Amino acid sequence: MPVRPKRGLMMPLSMSENLARLAAKIDWSRSDGEEDGDEAAPSSAEGDGDADSQVTTFQQPTWPWESVRNKIRDAYTEVCVLSDVLSIARHKRYMVLDGVTQDAPEPKQIIQVISKKKGLAAAAQILSEGAERMRENLAEQRRNRNNNDFYTELLRLRQKWRLRKVGNNIIGDLSYKQVGSRFWLSGTFEVKKAEENAPALPPPAPGLPPVPPSPIIVTVPSELQGAAFIYVTIRKDQETLCSARLTHPGSTPLPVPQSQHWSDRLDAAQNVLFCKELIAQLAREAVQLQPRLPHMVIGNEITSTIFPGIHLVMGLAHSARPERRPAAAPLPPVPAGPLGDNNYVLEHSLHQLLRHMHHRNMHHAMPHPASAPMGMSKRRRQAGPGAASRGQLLKMVESETLLESIIRQARHVVLRMRTAFAIDSCAREIKDPLIVTHWNSVNSPTQSCCKVNIMTHGYDSVHRTTFLINVLEDSLRCVCRDGRVMTVSYETSELHYIILCQVSQHNLLAAQSLGRIMGWTVKSSSSGQGGGGGGGSDASQTAQSGGGGAASSSCVLSAPGGHCYVAVRCQPHGEPVTVSVAQSPKRDFFPTALVTEHKWEHLGGAFRQIKWEKMEGRNFLNKMELLMANLSSGTGSIM
Amino acid sequence: MCAAISAQEKLQAAMQHKIVPNQEYLLQGSVLDSSKDVLIHRLRGLADNVDEQVETFQDRERVLTLGPVSGQTLTLYVRQAMDVRPGMDQSDTPWTMRYIGQPELGDKSRPTVLRNSIDVGCTPNVLEFLSEMGFKQDYEFMCKGLMFRKGRMKILVYKVYKNKTADNWEPLSMSHVVELSVLAPQGHDAVAEDVRNFAEQLKPLVQLEKTDYRRL
Hints:
Chain A is elongated and about 185 Å long. Chain A has 639 residues and is of the alpha+beta class. In chain A, α11 crosses α12. In chain A, β13 (475-480) and β14 form a beta hairpin. The relative contact order of chain A is 0.05. Chain A is 37% helix and 19% strand. Chain B is an alpha+beta fold and 216 residues long. The longest helix of chain B is centred in the N-terminal third of the chain and has 16 residues, at 2-17. Chain A binds chain B through residues 288-290, 362-363, 366-375, 378, 381-386, 393-395, 397-399, 401, and chain B through 1-4, 7-8, 11, 21, 48-49, 52, 55, 57, 59, 61, 77, 79-81, 83, 92-96, 98, 119-123, 143, 147, 149, 152, 154, 156, 158, 183. Chain B: Keywords: Activator, Nucleus, Transcription, Transcription regulation. Chain B: It comes from Amphibalanus amphitrite. Chain B: This is Mediator of RNA polymerase II transcription subunit 18.
């Protein structure tokens, strides 16, 4: 039986106990050698017995601890001296501790050279190792780029598309579900390894070397194969209105992905999915909405009426299996009809609208405070405390559908085209004052703005009439300089009338300005007369007062000398300009039985109309200028 | 017009068939301040709407109790958003009053805490109203942090502050609370699975679990 040694617990010694232990170690009785020597020397030097013995007896310790005390005192003195020396040395002002310089060993040159060589060799070794590694890396990358094995291709596929492993298969997702789409078609595709001896593909274009087969085969669901796009056309009964066709070289209405490469096929499949969702959403809205003229949904095509006689046609063009077509076959000719006249702007708008819808599905305002439920708009949250009525709540829920938005945009496109055409045809017909238009380059999809300037050639500083035309979805708004705002419907005849009115007004105002420049005074002017008023002839011309436009307007100018009056009348319809002149003295004064004296010839004569076509001058203002110049000289006679 | 009619029908159906979401599925955990940034980066990657800035919030919550009435006390949580954003009036964001029922922990098969929760928006004079009714304020605190969402899930990472004197907020601890919650109508237990799967993805950074308040 092993005997267990007894272990006792010993507390660590306290400070006084420690000191006692150390003091016990010191042998106080032993004196050091020097002191002995000193004691012995004076005693032997003096040789005096009594004095020595007396001295020695005095040096005998009177109390037992004397020697201990002396030793401690000496030790204390030594330690004080040491501490003083150290503190002085620390200050470094009077004393500095410095190491003893050793003699440098004699350098042996050969050893230095050898050591330097070794150092350089080691550094060179490290650098060359690093360079070697980088070179290998580069070579491997270059090799891998041309490497066509399954795993590098899979890596590249994974960098662009979402993949996950389900069981033994690799499934990918090309739908828009992650960004807010709620379409029922699932866009999953499967990735498989290609067989070893797959045949090489035909070259994408003649002249290029054949593409090596890709080690990855991507299986896209059958309903998403091929290529698709949405066509949007605006048709007037049977003919197409919008034939703005942008061609870029090599494109056909149905771009056919000739290559079998997985990236192109996946892109095309995603595009097909997007177009299908778009057309499904439009069709659903077309059926749910109930406008006055219902929309027609036939197969993949939706027709709706935007203006009487004008239809908006939207459809899905999907060509299912382009791979079947041999590469050498010629591309099909551009089909006429809806596929040939696609309005790309509206197509792009449709895409954007669908993406906006996706975005709205995903991005709701976050709740503040944080404990409130998510998914509500800010207004909806405020509805409770703000005591919203049922009507207000219902209004919050309503939002414009895709179909309504695109119809509004299409209406605006048509109206804008018509307005531009109307203004241009007016400008072509009316040569006298020039009509210049500036369209704003920054517009919204449902509103455009155009500024129309009317001025006479050669007299642009005399007078210029400007007005603004705001093209909205189904109406136009004209804002004139004098503050009149006229809202007209989409009929072009109304715009035509407004332009004519503005032209006639311009003529009149310009004539007044010209008269003022030439020193003539405006005796009277009136705008907005009914048909047949003023110094005129045709009472049969009835003024059209639609659109708030003035009918005919007229003014009377008098010469500086006061002897001549010129009356001008301008009207939009009928005779554009009528000018009459009255002169005094009368030319045709003959004394009659009633009026006998010649002085009565100074009463102003009757107004006589001038054959304006026979008048000389480039344009109306030029003719007016010549007329007035002629008349103001006083001696001119026109008859 | 058609959309308006269908919205009306939906509202009526919701009221009749009780599909108002009033069940909350909840998981909670906490993360030290020093590791909060790693968690935030992870959440930014996992959550929806990566293109937006992370949403911050600062709320002040007061807990009011009425009781005991026939042996039971009623607790209501009144919450107010404190952060004023540019372009948003303080009066725009309504206060919310919340009733939270007893949490049901269930057993291992239930992955989250399920509790009844009813939220209403109210005007700022709710405090006056409740005090008139006899509610007394138990305590109040402020929480300040970030908000994420993933589908229907709301993820909050916030720090709790307490005040000894008015407007002198001091943090309560050196960590942030992480909360994962979904509000769903009755019977939609499948969302709890989604919550649990998401919590798994945050596993090494923060342990989200069902906390039993009675055992704390």
